[in-house]
């Protein structure tokens, strides 16, 4: 774990800040244009979830460096209402039925690793990783 | 034409060829390329990415603003790519569901199967066709050695899987009745209690139960809110409605059913059906009851099973071979 930097999400505008920081970190790690765009989209999705459903929270980034690979981890944290039925929100077509946003299944597709912890009434933490190929 | 490889090199060549020649041939190959990409589930954003990289290699001096504009395009396509992948996975799921339902439909067929009795005195024609894969209609025959034939026709308000599940329950309740002859009013009364106890109150079942006694040719029947049947007088060539009061099954455990008796003359027919027959639609227009009866009458000289088959064919065609509702039609005719 190299370093961690975070962006607080309080207003919609903060989503842009999170995207910008995430993209900069991704670029420094060496991700190409498409992957940068994918990472930014995943960040948008995570940050927007916080903004819409939890009100406030933060999105943090870690540059990952292992012996044989490099990558980026994005951690989205909030103290919101939590997700009752995780299975349901991870189902295709559940949150995206209105055609808005990619939903959590989209985030999972954009990234290589996906992990979620959520407790009702306590909040949600989602950690996703993308490795540099 | 050699098979196209889906890679950057190939795309770059095709693009270069097109820019040079503005040739239809190259465009045709582009079409092939996109089809193959879809076969390999390549999403649109990846194609844009290949395009950008190809341009960079063909034109290393590409102006910065073009590069930026392409990156902008790529960004807008990411969500489309996701939607495309989601679409793919939903399509696979849909296929799975379809095959699961067809397995269930086959099971239902076995579960609800009934044997059409071959009796000298009464000729029976019966047909039940589901609108979708699962049938929400049900019909059942019980024949005993003493010469009585019990006929049940039921319809769940609703279609598809929930209706089919409901019907399986009805079938098992009926199986659990004692073998001996039971009056239609008693059968409907006990089914009513089963349905009232076990089925969600938003679901209703209508049922007609008739008992044909081949010794004295009487037809005893009761109805639980079911579509009226018809009695066909052969001599006059006229239909008489068999419409009797009775509350649909499952509304109240207290409901009782009255039973009626009709003497059946030689050559006369009893027509039992579900609303899938009487509520056939031609375009937006519901057909009139008379139309159904006219069609039955026009085939009245045929054997009972053929009448039923011909009537179905008639309305299937009328509805453009797409049934709106499950279709069940039963015809009994006194032969001797």
UniProtKB/TrEMBL annotation, chain A:
SUPFAM superfamilies referenced in this protein's UniProt entry, alphabetically: ATPase domain of HSP90 chaperone/DNA topoisomerase II/histidine kinase
Pfam families: HATPase_c (PF02518)
Domain of life the protein comes from: Bacteria
Entry-linked SMART domains: HATPase_c
InterPro entries reported in the protein's UniProt record: HATPase_C_sf, HATPase_dom
Originating species: Halobacillus salinus
Name of the protein in question: Anti-sigma regulatory factor
Histidine kinase/HSP90-like ATPase domain sequence ranges: 34-133
Automatic annotation (TrEMBL), chain B:
Superkingdom of origin: Bacteria
Transmembrane segments: none
Domain PPM-type phosphatase: 123-334
Record-linked InterPro entries: Bact_Sigma-Reg, KaiA/RbsU_helical_domain_sf, PPM-type-like_dom_sf, PPM-type_phosphatase-like_dom, PSer_Pase_RsbU_N
Keywords: Hydrolase
One family name in Pfam for this protein: RsbU_N
Molecular functions (GO terms): phosphatase activity
Keyword Acyltransferase: no
Protein's UniProt keywords contain Electron transport: no
Name of this chain's protein: Phosphoserine phosphatase
Taxonomic source organism: Halobacillus salinus
Lineage: Bacteria, Bacillati, Bacillota, Bacilli, Bacillales
């Amino acid at each position: 774990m190299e370093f961690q930097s975070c962006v607080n999400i309080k207003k919609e505008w903060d989503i842009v800040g999170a995207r910008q920081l995430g993209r900069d970190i991704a670029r420094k790690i060496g991700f190409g244009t498409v992957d940068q765009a994918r990472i930014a989209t995943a960040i948008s999705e995570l940050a927007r979830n916080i903004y819409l459903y939890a009100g406030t929270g933060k999105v943090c980034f870690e540059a990952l460096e292992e012996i044989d690979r490099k990558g980026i981890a994005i951690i989205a944290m909030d103290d919101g209402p939590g997700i009752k039925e995780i299975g349901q929100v991870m189902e295709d077509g559940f949150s995206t039925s209105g055609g808005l946003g990619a939903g959590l299944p989209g985030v999972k597709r954009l990234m290589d690793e996906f992990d979620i912890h959520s407790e009702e009434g306590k909040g949600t933490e989602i950690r996703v990783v993308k490795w540099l190929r | 034409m050699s098979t196209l490889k889906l890679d950057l090199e190939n795309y770059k060549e095709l693009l270069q060829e097109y820019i040079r020649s503005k040739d239809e041939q190259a465009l045709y190959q582009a079409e092939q390329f996109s089809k193959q990409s879809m076969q390999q589930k390549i999403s649109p954003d990846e194609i844009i990415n290949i395009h950008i990289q190809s341009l960079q290699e063909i034109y290393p001096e590409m102006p910065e603003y073009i590069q930026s504009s392409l990156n902008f395009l790529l960004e807008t396509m990411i969500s489309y790519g996701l939607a495309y992948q989601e679409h793919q996975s939903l399509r696979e799921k849909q296929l799975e569901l379809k095959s699961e339902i067809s397995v269930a439909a086959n099971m239902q067929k076995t579960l609800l199967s009934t044997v059409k009795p071959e009796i000298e005195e009464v000729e029976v024609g019966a047909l039940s066709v589901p609108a979708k894969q699962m049938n929400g209609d049900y019909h059942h025959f019980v024949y005993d050695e003493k010469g009585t034939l019990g006929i049940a026709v039921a319809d769940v308000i609703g279609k598809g899987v929930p209706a089919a599940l409901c019907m399986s329950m009805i079938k098992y309740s009926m199986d659990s009745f004692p073998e001996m002859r039971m009056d239609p009013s008693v059968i409907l009364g006990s089914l009513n209690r089963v349905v009232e106890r076990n089925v969600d109150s938003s679901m209703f079942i209508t049922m007609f139960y008739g008992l044909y006694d081949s010794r004295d040719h009487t037809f005893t029947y009761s109805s639980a809110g079911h579509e009226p049947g018809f009695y066909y007088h052969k001599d006059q060539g006229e239909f008489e409605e068999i419409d009797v009061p009775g509350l649909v099954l499952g509304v109240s455990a207290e409901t009782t059913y009255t039973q009626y008796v009709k003497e059946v003359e030689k050559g006369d027919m009893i027509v039992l059906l579900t609303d899938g027959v009487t509520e056939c639609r031609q375009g937006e227009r519901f057909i009139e009851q008379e139309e159904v009866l006219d069609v039955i009458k026009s085939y009245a000289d045929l054997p009972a099973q053929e009448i039923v088959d011909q009537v179905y064919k008639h309305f299937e065609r009328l509805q453009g071979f797409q049934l709106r509702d499950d279709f069940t039609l039963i015809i009994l005719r006194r032969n001797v």
